[in-house]
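User: Sequence in, structure out. Go.
Assistant: Echoing your sequence, followed by the structure tokens.
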Amino acid sequence: MQDYFVYIVTNEKRSVLYIGITNNLNIRLDQHYRDSVHSKLSFAGKYNCYHLIYFEKFNNASEAIIREKTIKKWRREKKLNLIGDFNPEWQFLERDIL
């Protein structure tokens, strides 16, 4: 069975949010980092969003896609509350994951 993750990454100043979905969080975080360093073509690369601040794990892709789309539609305040409930100090979590 494959796991899927909905995740939120941010930049160093915690001012920009990128919401995504992946089946391999380690590889995806590494891609965000490389895009930020080497390529400014993607949204995450342009705004240096590679610090993980939130994630949810799902057992199937359909549920994860629905959740990602739901969160993306939310107003910023609701997204900030979601992150704050999960990670009150907005710690960068990628070191714990990688």
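User: And one key feature?
Assistant: The chain has one domain: 4-97.
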